[in-house]
Design goal:
Elements (H helix, E strand, L loop, with lengths): L7 H12 L7 H13 L3 H6 L7 H15 L4 H5 L1 E4 L2 E4 L12 H12 L6 E6 L5 H9 L3 E7 L2 H13 L6 E5 L10 E6 L14 H4 L14 H9 L4 E10 L5 H11 L4 E6 L5 E7 L2
Helix pairs in contact: 1-2, 1-4, 2-4, 6-7, 10-11
Length: 287
């Protein structure tokens, strides 16, 4: 992209054209986000400075950012942050990018927790990644004590940064390990957004999604391998009167409910739909 002597407004138009090469991109929004990120300016400054000339150093920085996005690298990895549940989270290539549909897990966990007549609510977040679920719960529920578990040490470094950023590290414990193995005592609530993409579907995912950690995406041949292992461990780690909430694909929900009922024969097993009226969260209420 020839950008020497360009005004910011002109550069923005060029950047949008460059980003139209990606079928899953939003060129109008993403060009603005990348320009503001590269220049380190607010949205107000961005609009106020549309007529100014860019320096050679600035254009070089912006060209590099636009090229990264045009190659398919996720926008959140480039800017290194993502908003989730009205909180800003640091993200990088070691963690799954938090998504809006996962906010339903937080809503449901908070609703269940607020119905418990206890002074402290013990929660386990399985596969915490960036810590988005664990931290959103701790931030919005002062009586929550959260065990944030992940198999990736690199992911836990990101979660640690986010827990410190939001001032909840005193109530969020970061544990390295597989699923529920790191916790010895039962909890009131288990939440999880596990890998649930069938292995055969991985290569057909959008380019930017394929940049995310494969171990956070790949759920085995039918996408339910991790759920099966979680359900095998959960009965010993969930208190009576507790709740287990797992995000899944709508196409998997019927089989997931069957597996859940087999693991928890006396529990109430159901699911909750997302905003698109698609089955999104598996719910297990123990008795």
């Amino acid at each position: 992209m020839k950008t020497q002597g360009m005004r910011l407004r002109e550069y923005l138009l060029r950047a949008r054209k460059e980003l139209r090469t990606g079928p899953d991109f939003n060129p109008h929004l993403e060009a603005e986000v990348l320009v503001r990120h590269g220049l380190g300016i607010s949205r107000e400054q961005f609009f106020a400075e549309l007529g100014r000339l860019l320096t050679l150093d600035e254009t070089a920085i912006l060209d590099a950012l636009i090229a990264r996005r045009a190659s398919g690298e996720p926008l959140a990895y480039i800017t290194q942050h993502r908003e989730f549940y009205s909180l800003e989270f640091a993200v990088n290539e070691h963690v799954l990018i938090p998504r809006q549909e996962s906010e339903l897990l937080v809503d449901m966990a908070l609703e269940f927790a607020n119905g418990l007549s206890v002074n402290t609510v013990d929660i386990a977040d399985v596969g915490t990644g960036s810590g988005a679920l664990a931290i959103a719960l701790a931030h919005n529920l002062p009586k929550a004590i959260v065990k944030a578990i992940d198999l990736s040490e690199e992911a836990l470094h990101v979660a640690d940064d986010n827990a410190r950023r939001h001032g909840v590290l005193d109530r969020v414990s970061l544990l390295l390990g597989d699923l529920l193995e790191p916790i010895s005592l039962a909890v009131d609530i288990i939440v999880s957004n596990p890998p649930y993409i069938p292995t055969g579907d991985i290569n057909g995912l959008p380019t930017d999604v394929r940049h995310e950690p494969r171990q956070a995406l790949d759920g085995g041949p039918d996408g339910l391998d991790v759920l099966r292992r979680l359900l095998a461990q959960a009965p010993a780690k969930l208190r009576r009167g507790g709740c287990l909430l797992v995000e899944l694909s709508p196409e998997q929900m019927a089989e997931a409910e069957r597996l859940a009922q087999a693991a928890f024969p006396s529990a109430e097993v159901s699911h909750v739909d997302d905003l698109l009226k698609l089955a999104r969260v598996l719910v297990i209420n123990t008795k």
